[in-house]
Design a protein that fits this description.
It is globular, with a radius of gyration of 19 Å. It has two domains: 201 residues, 2-enoyl-CoA Hydratase, Chain A, domain 1 (Alpha-Beta Complex); 45 residues. Helix content is 45%, strand content 17%. The protein is an alpha/beta fold.
Length: 260
């Protein structure tokens, strides 16, 4: 059985597709994969005014991500400095790079979405899942908690009730429960998830990228709290004379499709 792992980036016109791959391990995240994930999203952020408009995040082979690759754990988890390095400078650095991405992120969730998987999905703006997808973070069975910033991220995305059950009781829940909690936009038949994610990304791709960037900045400020949101007000209307603003209004008045 191969255990080759990677994070790949493929461009399909205005849409980037980021794929988690760890063959034979349901795409469990290795340390190398966390570092690659950060590099991919740092690269997307640094591209600035590229032709990309949206990112789909998916797993290879019918699973999203089953968590961390536990086969690596004995090599670093039993030392406080190396454990801190892993969570703060590898895992959180990658998740922060996703959160900082100015492009809308669509999660295409199939199969297992556990631990690291639910953290990665929590960084996405829109989440679509197959009816058979499973969600949880049963790390209490492994004798350790979710790192504080990772737990705060998941708690904010899935809500207090499910976060407590997942972390305190190792609860695993189906897609419908996560939809009811507001974590998922849609639950679809398993064989329709990939097409739905692509279609949703295409819908986003024809809209104003400036509006998407500004909305993402607003959401980030709200996540950071009131002081950041207040600072954002100073530049909130700088787009007034922008080309996209003028084009959007002109297209509506002319009853034509805008060209962003």
């Amino acid at each position: 059985m191969t255990t080759e792992s990677s994070i790949s980036l493929r461009r399909d016109g205005a849409i980037a597709v980021v794929t988690l791959s760890n063959a034979g391990r349901l795409n469990a995240m290795t340390r190398a994969m966390w570092r690659e994930l950060r590099a991919v999203f740092d690269g997307l952020r640094s591209e600035g005014d590229s032709a990309l408009r949206c990112v789909v995040v998916r797993g290879e082979g019918g699973a999203f991500c089953a968590g961390g690759d536990i086969s690596e754990y004995p090599s670093f988890r039993f030392s406080e400095p190396s454990l801190r390095e892993f969570h703060e400078n590898e895992v959180w650095a990658a998740l922060q790079a996703m959160l900082d991405c100015p492009l809308p992120l669509v999660a295409q969730i199939e199969g297992a979405c556990m631990g690291a998987g639910i953290e990665i999905a929590s960084c996405c703006d829109i989440r679509l899942a197959g009816a058979s997808a499973k969600f949880g973070a049963p790390i209490a069975k492994l004798g350790f908690p979710m790192a504080p910033r990772e737990a705060a991220l998941v708690h904010g995305a899935i809500g207090d009730v499910l976060a407590r059950d997942m972390l305190l009781a190792a609860g695993v829940h189906g897609a419908q429960r996560l939809y009811d909690a507001g974590f998922l936009l849609q639950v679809l038949p398993d064989n329709e998830v990939a097409l739905a994610a692509q279609s949703h990304a295409q819908r986003i791709a024809v809209l104003s990228p400036q509006a998407a960037r500004l909305h993402k900045a607003t959401f980030a400020a709200l996540r950071a709290g009131a002081p950041s949101a207040h600072v954002l007000l100073a530049t909130a209307y700088d787009y007034a004379d922008s080309a996209e603003h003028r084009e959007g209004i002109a297209a509506f008045l002319a009853k034509r499709r805008p060209n962003f």
